[in-house]
Amino acid sequence: MNRKKWSILLIFLFSVILITACHLLKKDSPSLTTIHLQEFSHSIYHAPQYVAVNKGFWAEEGLIIRIEQAKSNPQEIIEGLLTENTEILLIDGQLILPLLKSSARENIIGFAQITQNEGSFLVHREEKHDFQWEDLKKEIIISSPSETLSQALLEYVLRENKIRPYREVDVVENIPSKELAVGVFKSGSGNLIQLSEPLVSLVEQEKEGYVVTSLAGQIGNITNGVYVAPRDYLETKQEIIQKFTNGLYKAQIWCATHDAKEIAQVIKPFFPEVKMEILETAVNRYKDLEVWNTNPVIQKESVARLQEILTNVGKMGAEIFENDFIDNSFAQNAIENIPWPEESK
After folding, report:
1. Are residues 146 and 73 part of one domain?
2. What is the pLDDT of residues 32-65, one digit of tens each?
3. How many domains does the chain divide into?
């Protein structure tokens, strides 16, 4: 047999093998459903979400999760959930207040929670080993924009510590991004800045500032990072929502049973610009604060606490989440059917 015939035969045999392998793969593997998940803030604060992707917990449930960072303003993001190609939205501190003020809230259901605590810190220009809240009087704090949860929580904590915002302490809330705020702080403006990770660890590493306290310790557990979906999608795609919640719960268990270094290594591909040393420090700080839920249930006590705080600072007068806004059935099913590792019990 000449070389040409051999070549034809080999190509034929290779094609048969390839077609057979593809057929078997298709037969033995479940079909995957692609879900578009939108987040407003790409943050280490949402670490369990990135763990669910990179550890394959959502893939185990037959889902491909496409995480997309929202590029429009908060109000448009909320309203766009009902009209655009996004099945699930992660509501965080940037989106909670816009959601509460949106007419679209009646058609949106919260079904799983990822974070249970506030993730920002007060960073002082100087080291303060004996920090007292009364030390903030006559100081200037660079905070978040006025329509964010972080700013509302800072205002609440100041009032709880007998400090009147805008009278006894100057709170700057007109800088649109934290990166820009850090630049302003480094240039010499303000005595303190309210930051989240990894900016906190970066500022400390550069000796530009030092953490004096976290807001989480002053506030307690609140409803913060919540996954929501349009009401009609949740009602017609219950199997998909259950699979999503299952994968999230597996990631929450994994994060609760692994250390900061392991978590940092898993989520590193989502933060290529952050050095591993900074990433590990940031994860460890959040893990110590217990900001991440250990299960996806939206706790009523945390909702009530958030309501109390926002009412106190005049951000909200009516009930935040009516009974039909929250559906914990998917979270409860996940807890009932997915066991914790035996060695962790």
Report:
1. no
2. 899 999 888 889 999 999 999 999 999 999 999 9
3. 2
Q: Which of 159, 188, 219 is the last residue of a domain?
A: 219
User: Is 28 a member of any domain?
Assistant: no
Q: In what order do the strands lie in the sheet with 170-172?
A: 170-172, 140-142, 192-196, 120-124, 210-214
Taking alpha carbons only, the member of 303, 93, 75 closest to residue 195 is: 93
Residue 157 CB contacts under 8 Å (≥ 6 apart), including other chains = 133, 215, 218, 219
The partner residues of 71 in beta bridges, in order of sequence, read none
Identify the domain containing residue 333 by its residue range.
33-117+222-344
pTM: 0.85
Q: What letter represents residue 30's amino acid?
A: P
- Dihedrals φ, ψ of 140, to 5°? -120, 120
CB 261 within 8 A of CB 62: no
Task: Say if residue 231 is in the same domain as residue 93.
Answer: yes
HSE (side-chain half, CA atoms, 13 Å) at 285:
26
